[in-house]
Design a protein that fits this description.
Blueprint: H1 3-31, H2 35-59, H3 65-93, H4 97-124
Helix pairs in contact: 1-2, 3-4
Bound molecules: fe (ii) ion (2 copies).
């Protein structure tokens, strides 16, 4: 893989992650009664989405809706059949019930997402 393609992946992941972190920071600021600081975090979070979307555009991963539905269903399915079951087992083994529970909640919802995407794909054909 060319260096730039690799860097795009890293930058996309970083911007996406930062977006969620800033939203969580904004939530915390609200809890502390710091509404103006919450606003700063929210504004920056919005900008990170713009950056992430711009990187994604260059990465050429957005295809037709039919292809995107297929890709999304496959991604959800991977989380269901391998990622989350493994993560839940490992968290339990390490006594991390908090993480196991968070993984379990996501795991259950991913099934709904996968089925939703598959259903939509079927209806398109
Ligand atoms: Fe950014
Ligand atoms: Fe999902």
């Amino acid at each position: 893989m060319a260096k730039t393609d690799e860097n795009l992946k890293i930058a996309f992941a970083d911007e996406s992650q930062t977006n969620i972190e800033y939203l969580a920071y904004a939530h915390q600021a609200i809890n502390e009664g710091l509404t103006e600081i919450a606003q700063l975090f929210r504004e920056a979070a919005g900008a990170e989405v713009v950056h992430a979307l711009a990187h994604l555009k260059v990465m050429d991963v957005v295809k037709t809706t039919r292809e995107n539905l297929k890709e999304a269903a496959e991604g959800e399915n991977l989380e269901i059949i391998s990622m989350y079951p493994k993560f839940i087992r490992e968290a339990e083994k390490e006594g991390r019930q908090d993480a196991a529970q968070s993984f379990r909640i996501a795991f259950e919802r991913e099934k709904h997402h996968r089925d939703m995407f598959r259903q939509a794909l079927k209806q398109m054909k």
